[in-house]
Amino acid sequence: MPDPQPTHQTKPSARRGREPVEARPAARASVTRGVFGDANPISEKLTRTSGVRPKPATEGAVLVTGICGRLGKLLARELHRSDSVVGVDRRPFAGRPKDIVHHQVDMRRKKMKDIFRGRNIRAVVHVGVLHDPRRSDRERHSWNIVAFQKLLEYMAQYEVPKLIVLSGANVYGPQPSNPQFLTEDAPLLGAQHFGGMRDLVELDMLAQSFFWKHPSTETVVLRPCHIVGRVRNAASNYLRLDRPVMIMGFDPMMQLVHEKDVVRAIQLALRPVVSGIYNIRGSGEMPLSHLVRKAGGRPRVLPSPLARLAIDQLWRLRLSNFPSQELDHLRYVCMVDDARAREELGYEPTYSIDRALRDLRRVRYTL
Amino acid sequence: MSQRGSIVPFAGWRRPRLLGDSPWRAAFRSVGDRVVRIAEEVVGQDIDARIAGIRTHPNEVGHDPFGFDPETSRYALAMAGLLHRRYFRTQVFGIERIPEGRVLLIANHSGQLPIDAVLIASALMLDANPPRFPRSMVETWTAQLPFISTLYPRLGQVVGSPENARRLLNQEESLIVFPEGAKGISKTFDQRYQLTDFGLGFLRLALEANTPIVPVAVIGGEEQYPSIADFKPLAKLLRMPAFPVMPQMLFGMVAPLPTKYRLYFGEPFRFVGDPDDDDSAIEEQVWLVKSTIQSMVNRGLRERKGVFI
């Protein structure tokens, strides 16, 4: 088995080195034949690719909101192979694959309705949730809730058969009284101590009420634990730090999920008949200190009041983008049980924690 | 000034480090190893073999999902073994009655600090054959305490919630439950060995998970920290379940008195019924468990010659 590999490798290079003159015309000939001479290879290729590409199960496009975020782009790149994808975002989509239609609009505008009216949409994937803690509460609320309500309105009006909302395990919130593994029925207490979580909880609730009000639409709410990878969210940025803060005397168990596992969960949820709320968990859970060390950081251990004070001050001085309420994540467990996703969705995490942390470190985070 | 990727100023400053382990950790490890060796001599058992003998359920990355850490537990078991055999000179009766597989150990709670849990756990680890890995359900309140909240999960202790208990029982583990809760442990001296009200949760759990209940009577705990009063305002201020007033603390005696502990394991109960039954129906069965433990306690008290012998 190892034998043909080197011979195959040395052969072209040797040929290139010895007789470059002869190699060139042959290559050109193959190109010219393809473009001008005989049209057969090209047409064959075209028909072949269009034949291989699987037809979408249901007619219509998948609308992805917030497509220009890192997770949105990743999702779009996976989805556009099998479905026609329509993207909606305020930001421009750099490096957009040609077959993705992107509308650079604000979701609160009338233009949004035209998108629904203009084409047959079979599913909406709502990834466009604004988490930036630096934005004002009002802007965040208007973007997250008002825009989502508009979206739901159009969905009801144009009878879109599927809605997938990416919520998060943060809606449960880290609490000392949490069971080790939260099921989907656990109360959403995430906003109890952290006002920034209020929008996400409300979004989750809106999706749930949509689930009951419009039974003809299959609504799926996904609640993944901390998503890591190339995304820039609080958990990823925290693990990218060289000296992340840990709270003295606390070392909760943590779950991480690779971004591509989340994308796969969304793809699984796009299949017909699937609906409901699903927790998404990565492969394995570990104490926070192990995760930090594995990610290459050296924890800086501070007592809780001091950490709170320091982070508040750094936040005020704009030296850090971590609100001090998020410190609860470093103290209490907030882990999810993904039994339902495994059973009903057929979801199984494929990326290991090591892989997730390696991908995470590829993106730099500087303050 | 500040190094890339840190949210703390002066992050560029690095303390000179030894190769490999940090000096603190290395020192801790060498002390811990010595304790383990001393304990092995005193106890006469191989502590590492005992820990290796228990059955756990590691996840994909080899960690216990509830945070059990064999490294920490080995030191803890060594310390607990010393307390168990030397300090409290515990006598264990009827440990062979604990059935295989899932089991709920229901015990009376006493003694201001949960040393009774430590001793039941070390009896299960050191006296039972094969060793049983004890999980105990701890107060939610302890999850808010620094250090304790790290230590407890590493020793396999779990925050007491029905979901956790159900999950552990379905993994065929043994759970230690003190249905009296904080009320039981902070009893004043005049109420010693009188069981307070039992919660009903454990019995519903046992019915639901089809789990045998082993009653356990702990004798000797009440005299380790005699408490003369519960100072409620201070407890409220410190957000503690109770604030016991212990005279021995006034004399600077922080350690518990070296009373002699006796642990009695009773015959297992196997209840059948509907876990969602009325409180009155459940209460009857709870009363049966409670009165069994109370009579075991009373018999144990009659049998003992003195508190310290």
Commentary on this structure:
The complex is a heterodimer of chains A (367) and B (309). Chain A is an alpha/beta fold and 367 residues long. Chain A has helices spanning 4-18, 20-37, 40-52, 70-79, 111-118, 137-157, 198-213, 234-240, 259-269, 288-294, 304-316, 339-345, 353-361; strands spanning 61-65, 85-89, 101-104, 121-126, 162-166, 218-224, 226-228, 245-247, 253-258, 276-280, 285-287, 300-302. The model of chain A is unreliable at 1-57 (pLDDT under 50). With 309 residues, chain B is an alpha/beta fold. Chain B has a single domain (82-303), classed as Glycerol-3-phosphate (1)-acyltransferase (3-Layer(aba) Sandwich), CATH 3.40.1130. Chain B contains eleven helices and nine strands. Chain B has a seven-stranded mixed β-sheet, with helices on both faces. In chain B, strands 7-8 form a two-stranded antiparallel ribbon. In chain B, helix 3 crosses helix 4 and helix 6 (162-170) packs parallel to helix 8 (201-209). Classes of the chains: A alpha/beta (367), B alpha/beta (309).
Radius of gyration of chain A: 24 Å
Largest beta-sheet characterization of chain A: 7 strands, parallel
* Rg over alpha carbons of chain B: 21 Å
Report the sheet with the most strands of chain B, covering strand number, pairing sense and barrel closure. 7 strands, mixed
Task: List segments of chain A where confidence is low: pLDDT < 50 over at least 5 consecutive residues.
Answer: 1-57
Q: Treating each run of at least 4 consecutive H or I residues as one helix, how many helices of chain B?
A: 11
Provide keyphrases for this structure.
heterodimer; A: 367 residues; alpha/beta; three-stranded mixed β-sheet; 13 helices; 42% helix; B: 309 residues; two-stranded antiparallel sheet; 9 strands; globular
